[in-house]
Structure formats: C-alpha cells, structure tokens
C-alpha cells in the first residue's frame, strides 16, 4: 500500500492548460510518490497526454504549480525535466531503426575520447557496447548482440531497448506512454515485467494505458481523468475494474 503520508516526489497543483478556447486540463491536482507505479487512466481526450507533456517539460501549463521533492520547479523544455531525472518513453519509442542498440542507448550522450588537447575526438564504441550489455543482462532482457540494428528487432525487443535506455539515463521518474500498445500478448507480458523491475530499482513510474487488466497487474495506484478533470485516485488493492470503469465513463454500471 502506498503511504500517502510520505512527501510526493512529484506534485502538480491546480494545473490548467488551454489551447485557444479549448481547456485540455482544468485545475488538476496530481501526485506521484517515491517508488510507486501509478497508472494514469481515461478515455481519449481526457487530458492524459497533455498532463504527461507538462510533467516531461514538452508543454508549459497555462496556470498551476509543479513541485519536485517539495521544491517548486518550472520546466522550460524537456531538458529541464531530464536534468531532474525525469525520463519519458512515448508511444513512438523515439529510437532510430538504422542505428544499433548501443548507439540508440547512448544517442545524444555518446562516450567520446578526446586526444591531443581535444583536437581529435573518437567515439568509444567498445565502452558503450560493454555498458549496454551489462545493463541488458542486469534487466534480464533477452538480447544477446547489442550491435544489431534496431530495425531487425521484434516489437517487444524495440520496447525493451527504449525502456533500457530510459532506465540507464533516468534517475528518479520514468513516464511510459502506452508501453504495450503495439505488442502481442507475450511481448506485452515481458514489457510489464520489465516495468516492475523499474520499481525494484527504486524508480517512480507513471504509465498511461487504456488496458485496465494491465493497470491492475502492474500499478500500485490508479488516477482517473475525464474531460480534463481529475475524477479520483484509487489504491489498486482497494478497488476493482468496475469501479474504475464507472469513474472513466461517469455512468452507473447496469448488470443484465
């Protein structure tokens, strides 16, 4: 059970976001606790993606405040969020098919050797390859050769590569946008097990999903949005899918 007496590692207070006359988020409060897996649930248009983009620094709220470990922060760009240790894996995975696995893991953060006072700069491919192998082994990801181009991987292996990259560079918080959307049953289960490993490594995790079964399997707590408003928060062990569906739709369930 989540100890709600703990200080949240991340807290959003009274967040609203307008796009012209459209209010995507309406005075939303949101909290994420240390070492928690939180599932963010809601129909299309509920405001989930907008909220996540604000947390990741891709969007600025129209109004409201963001607190990280109790200190107020403002994100001007995703770089600011990454600096605090917030890493995001979007549905398109943001990995490059034409590069191999270890090059994707270190993309933009390459290990470079400098020689002759920095006049000569050489990529340390062997070191990056070694570190990527060690990480894959530690996470029990079944990819033997990290020199393989990503375009030759299965959907599950691509997802694992994106998650591994996030784990490698993340410090505190991992955000996953529909992490099993393009995966089959077996690959989805592997992805969910990998998400559980994030908690074992003391990450706090936000997962956006439409799959209630997966949310109940992997999450500690569920937060429901509807029409840009926060409807409620439920500890997974203290609720059930019917109650969450009622919160999502705003309708009473009729048993026939």
Notes on the protein architecture:
The protein starts with 9 loop residues before the first strand and ends in a 7-residue tail after the last helix. It has helices spanning 48-55, 78-84, 101-105, 125-138, 155-169, 185-200, 212-218, 241-249, and strands spanning 10-19, 22-32, 37-41, 63-68, 71-73, 86-89, 112-115, 120-123, 173-177, 204-208, 221-226, 229-235. Helix content is 32%, strand content 27%. It has eight helices and twelve strands. The mean pLDDT is 87. It is α/β, with parallel strands linked by helices and 256 residues long. Strands 6-9-10-3-11-12 form a six-stranded mixed β-sheet, sandwiched between helices. Strands 2-1-4-5 form a four-stranded antiparallel β-sheet, with helices on one face. The longest helix has 16 residues, at 185-200. Strand 1 (10-19) and strand 2 form a beta hairpin.
